[in-house]
Structure formats: C-alpha cells, structure tokens
Amino acid sequence: MDFMKAIGIAASGLRAQSGRMRVISENIANADSEPTRAGAEPYRRKVPTFADRLDRELDARVVDLGRVRRDQAPFRTKHDPGNPVADAKGDVQLPNVNLLVETVDMREAQRSYEANLNVVTAARRMISRTIDILKV
C-alpha cells in the first residue's frame, strides 16, 4: 500500500470539507440578516460543490472544493410593516437559509472531515510501526 498516496487523497478530502464548513458557517452567520436598504435582496444561501481532479504527483484522483453557487430557492418573508426595508405590503424578505438544513450539512461535513483525518492518522501509525519493525 502506498501510504503517501492515501495521505494525499485524505488530505484533499480534509481541505474540501474544511472549505465546505466555511461556506456553511457563512450561511449560518447570515441566516437572520436583513437587506441593507429597501428593494435590495437579502443574503442568498451559498451551496458548495466538489470537483475531482487528477493529481499527477500522487497519480491519484483527489477532491477539491468546486464552484460555490447561489441557491435560487425563494427568500423567506416576514410581515413587519414598521421595518424600514419593508415593501409596500409591509413584508421584509429574509435569507433563504434554513438553519436545520445548515446544521445537518455541517454535521455531515464534520463527519467526513473526521473520517479523512482517521485515514491520515492510521496511515501515520502504519508508517511508524513499519519504521519500528525495520529498526530491529
């Protein structure tokens, strides 16, 4: 088994999941934000994507954080006629961020990150034990 290849592939997974968690964190941070002025759109949820590529140095396919796209789902609305950014009907548009969805996505990203970290840890242990055996 090529330990360096395993570590390299797992490291790409760590980077990709770390980027995914940053995007999810931004969504959570902006979940309750309001538009800055009347008629402006509120924050639009971002959706991370993944892309695979061939790493010629490792001679293996690795994963990268792909394009981060905007979720085109409709905005939430709240009736608040006293709000300065409310429309003529008294409704305020709010971000299309669902905290439950973001929490589940964050947990999934965290578990994937931990799985990749476990691969790196196991490979390092195997390398260390191999070196110990060769010392004898």
List keywords for this structure.
alpha+beta, 136 residues, 4 strands, elongated, 2 helices, two-stranded antiparallel sheet, single chain
Rounded radius of gyration (Å): 22 Å
Number of strands: 4
State the separation between the terminal residues, measured CA to CA. Answer: 22 Å
| Major sheet | 2 strands, antiparallel
Enumerate the spans where pLDDT stays under 50 for 5 or more consecutive residues. none
Q: Which H/E pattern describes the elements?
A: HEEEEH
The mean pLDDT is 94
Structural class: alpha+beta
Q: Tell me the strand order in the biggest sheet.
A: 1-2
Count the helices. How many? 2
Percent of residues in helical segments? 40-55%
Oligomer: single chain
Residue share in β-strands: 15-25%
Global shape: elongated
